[in-house]
């Protein structure tokens, strides 16, 4: 596995963009494929996960042209009814979003399909998707009764039926899969969550001409509505920006601007948490791009103090918790992260991975059933750490390495290609 050596850096300064939003890039390809007409996507994330989504829909006969240099994808949508039976396995690689959203599409289709991914996907729970889809009448086979990959869909014999479903845990992937199945079902599908997860699906379906009702934490959609193609401009990914934000928040003298970043309120929990810690972070040039709020984010290094994060904030920063834990090591006092048991089911168990690797670097950290407790500030010391082949773990510990004394080696650093292919290059440019 590829490794990167990190040493303490000088201040991060200047202005940069960040790669396109992963969640929005996946959805743009999928919704473009099931829409009628041509969808052009700009600012598409050139990451491994999103390329798997393109490949899967190409295998279902959708013409998709991807110009990697331009970051442009052109999709010739064929409608739900225009997808073809794939002649090969639909391989999602490392991508949970691809498999879970795609299952919501596949269960409404008349043909046979098999989906699987890498070792990490094989360990991730699929019951959260297959159980409610079965309640809609979906036929699903798979390992351990369809709760783990590989999963086979024999092809629907009867139309799906809409359901009313309360999600056991907030999850945009599950919510989106049910809405996509709901669009192919008879009647209405209603999805409720205790806390609101990211709402890119709701926003983009509306933009594609679907009537969708959103009321508080409840979303409903009636079956049989077609999607109309439309162009999508993908903003920068706030989850990728979070690594640079974190670095600038803790590396002495930093002053950084990130332009054109998505600041959808269902995704800005990390900014709120950083501000609550006394961090200096502001939005400028706020505007709306393809139905999504976008801004430039300006961040300056400032001493931080500890906070407790829990409840409805957690789904709003779920992917940022590993790097949040890194900045918590530099904050004064006890930082408590709770209600985040979901972290165990990400690309790796992110509670264990974050705690064990932070400890390697000398942090005072304790893993709990549903989160982490971190005492700060501590001086971190460079160490040999592993990404566990999880992009966000590798990048979080790279940020830790920037403030550690002595050298840090990140094993499995290539995992960053999943969501931030030029991560190491960008960091180098900003600290020159
Ligand atoms: C995503 C939803 C979240 C997030 C993942 C992307 C999405 O997962 O962690 O990185 O694009 O819908 P859950 O739905 O499992 O919370």
Automatic annotation (TrEMBL):
One of its GO terms (cellular component) is cytoplasm. Residues 7-427 form the Enolpyruvate transferase domain. Phosphoenolpyruvate binds at residues 22, 96, 124, 173, 350, 392. One of its GO terms (molecular function) is 3-phosphoshikimate 1-carboxyvinyltransferase activity. Its main location: cytoplasm. It is found in: Cytoplasm. It comes from the Bacteria. Keywords: Amino-acid biosynthesis, Aromatic amino acid biosynthesis, Cytoplasm, Transferase. The active site is at 319 (proton acceptor). It catalyses: 3-phosphoshikimate + phosphoenolpyruvate = 5-O-(1-carboxyvinyl)-3-phosphoshikimate + phosphate. Its EC number is 2.5.1.19. Pfam families: EPSP_synthase (PF00275). It is an enzyme of class 2 (transferase). Pathway: Metabolic intermediate biosynthesis; chorismate biosynthesis; chorismate from D-erythrose 4-phosphate and phosphoenolpyruvate: step 6/7. GO terms for biological process: amino acid biosynthetic process; aromatic amino acid family biosynthetic process; chorismate biosynthetic process. The keyword Amino-acid biosynthesis applies. 3-phosphoshikimate binds at residues 22-23, 27, 171, 173, 319, 346. Catalyzes the transfer of the enolpyruvyl moiety of phosphoenolpyruvate (PEP) to the 5-hydroxyl of shikimate-3-phosphate (S3P) to produce enolpyruvyl shikimate-3-phosphate and inorganic phosphate. Monomer. HAMAP family: EPSP_synth. Belongs to the EPSP synthase family. This is 3-phosphoshikimate 1-carboxyvinyltransferase. It comes from Salicibibacter kimchii. The gene is aroA.
């Amino acid at each position: 596995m590829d490794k990167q050596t990190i040493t303490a850096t000088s201040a991060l300064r200047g202005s940069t963009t960040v790669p396109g939003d992963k969640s929005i890039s996946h959805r743009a390809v999928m919704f473009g494929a099931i829409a009628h007409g041509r969808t052009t996507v700009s600012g598409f994330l050139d990451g491994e996960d999103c390329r798997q989504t393109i490949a899967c829909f190409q295998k279902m006969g959708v013409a998709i042209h991807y110009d990697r240099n331009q970051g442009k994808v052109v999709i010739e949508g064929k409608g739900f009814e225009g997808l073809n039976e794939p002649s090969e396995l639909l391989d999602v690689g490392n991508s949970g979003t691809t498999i879970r959203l795609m299952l919501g599409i596949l269960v409404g289709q008349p043909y046979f399909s098999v989906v699987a991914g890498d070792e990490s996907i094989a360990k991730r729970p699929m019951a959260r998707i297959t159980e409610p889809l079965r309640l809609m009448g979906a036929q699903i086979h798979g390992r351990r009764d369809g709760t783990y990959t590989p999963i086979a869909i024999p092809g629907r014999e009867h139309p799906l039926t809409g359901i009313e479903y309360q999600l056991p845990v907030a999850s945009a992937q599950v919510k989106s899969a049910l809405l996509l199945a709901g669009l192919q079902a008879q009647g209405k599908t209603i999805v409720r969550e205790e806390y609101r997860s990211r709402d890119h699906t709701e926003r983009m379906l509306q933009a594609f001409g679907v009537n969708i009702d959103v009321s508080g934490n409840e979303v409903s959609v009636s079956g049989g509505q077609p999607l109309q193609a439309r162009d999508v401009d993908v903003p920068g990914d706030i989850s990728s920006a979070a690594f640079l934000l974190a670095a600038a928040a803790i590396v002495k003298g930093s002053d950084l601007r990130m332009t054109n970043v998505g600041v959808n309120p269902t995704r800005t929990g990390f900014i709120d948490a950083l501000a609550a810690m006394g961090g200096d972070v502001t939005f400028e040039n706020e505007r709306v791009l393809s139905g999504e709020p976008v801004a430039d984010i300006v961040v300056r290094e400032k001493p931080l103090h500890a906070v407790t994060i829990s409840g409805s904030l957690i789904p709003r920063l779920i992917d940022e918790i590993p790097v949040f834990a890194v900045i918590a090591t530099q904050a004064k006092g006890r930082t408590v992260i709770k209600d985040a048991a979901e972290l165990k089911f990400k690309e790796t168990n992110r509670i264990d991975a974050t705690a064990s690797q932070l400890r390697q670097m000398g942090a005072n950290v304790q893993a709990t059933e549903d989160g982490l407790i971190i005492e700060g500030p501590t001086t971190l010391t460079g160490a040999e750490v592993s990404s566990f082949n999880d992009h966000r773990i590798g990048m979080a510990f790279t940020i830790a390495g920037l403030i550690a004394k002595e050298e840090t080696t990140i094993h499995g650093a290539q995992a960053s290609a999943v969501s931030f292919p030029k991560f190491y290059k960008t960091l180098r440019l900003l600290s020159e």
